[in-house]
Design goal:
little secondary structure; 2 strands; 14% helix; elongated
Length: 132
């Protein structure tokens, strides 16, 4: 099994989602964030006691930004050539087989990744029957 080059502690500054203004009051207003734009909006004017806005300060650490919990970064793979481009970076990047790759090609890619000792994030996807 391939291990990441170094395991860095991932710290998220905020894990709760930012909720849209008045989404708790009306069913027609979904909870997904939209910036408030009303001329008298208390939230837009950032009054005390209103909901927090997304800001640049909530951003993740550059070193851990796109890291998976196991310490790898994802790289989408379409074919064997893409997979072989990860040979020198197999301790930094993990291959993710693209969603539109069929089962037959997936099996080939997973086998090749094992030979090259590259971690595959989704090795079991679309492979239903167990080969004898």
């Amino acid at each position: 099994m391939v291990r990441p080059a170094r395991k860095v502690n991932i710290v998220k500054k905020r894990t709760k989602p930012f909720v849209r203004v008045q989404s708790d009051r009306f069913k027609r207003v979904s909870a997904s964030w939209r910036r408030p734009v009303g001329i008298d909006s208390r939230t837009r004017r950032r009054f005390k006691g209103t909901r927090p806005h997304p800001k640049i300060g909530y951003g993740s650490n550059k070193k851990t930004r796109f890291l998976l919990p196991d310490g790898f970064r994802k790289f989408t793979v379409q074919n064997k050539k893409d997979l072989e481009s990860l040979v020198m970076l197999n301790r930094t990047y993990a291959a993710e087989i693209a969603h539109n790759i069929g089962a037959k090609k997936r099996v080939e890619l997973v086998e090749r990744a094992k030979q090259l000792s590259i971690k595959v994030v989704n090795p079991d996807a679309r492979i239903r029957s167990v080969e004898n």
